[in-house]
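Protein folds are increasingly written down as discrete tokens. With that in mind, we are printing a sequence and the tokens encoding its fold.
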Amino acid sequence: MSNSVLHKVDTRGDANHGWLHSKHTFSFANYHNPERMHFGVLRVLNDDTVAAGMGFGTHPHDNMEIISIPLEGDLEHKDSMGNVALIKNGDIQVMSAGSGVTHSEYNKDRDQQVKFLQIWVFPNKRNVTPRYDQITLKLEDRKNKLQQILSPNPDDEGVWIHQNAWFHLGNFDKGVGTEYQLKGKGNGLYIFDLKGDLKINEQLLNTRDGYGIWDTDKVSITAESDAEFLLMEVPMDI
């Protein structure tokens, strides 16, 4: 029998710093909810909006796999490994913080805000050499099908991380459905509905709802309206 947890859009932590408006699915910074610490190894799911001309100053991370998915606008990344890069909608960025890294992220556009998802996953190896990568995906490859954007394997589609996890993006027309078969034994699936109405098995999700399901081998996914969504398959044991 599968288990599940539903996180409705308006139950998320809400931090508005003016230059940054962040919605936290899981406990983060000043938002602490003992019921919402993580979903398996998925530790952070922040839905961030950065005001024009603003950004995150240089700050440290270690022993975390950090994934950024830009949804709107361009974000400039700089880090202590010497990387300077611009990430925009259609890109996926990954950073293995490992033994320690510092970075900053800025919206250099004076006219447009930036929206992006910041996702943290606990790694399965500690103190690895820090690593940075980013790729540009073809948006058409998620039209009415699941596009793999992350896996544990450097040779697979998308970016890779130090964890037995797989992420997919979908952009489905109303009425389109599919089945997702979990790849890792003991893994669960967390679905984040980016836009539209989505049915996971019998559970209806609306825009920005999150839904976790585990102790199952597969789920059915049906777009009840035109819908965009992110699937995150992750180990449930930390």
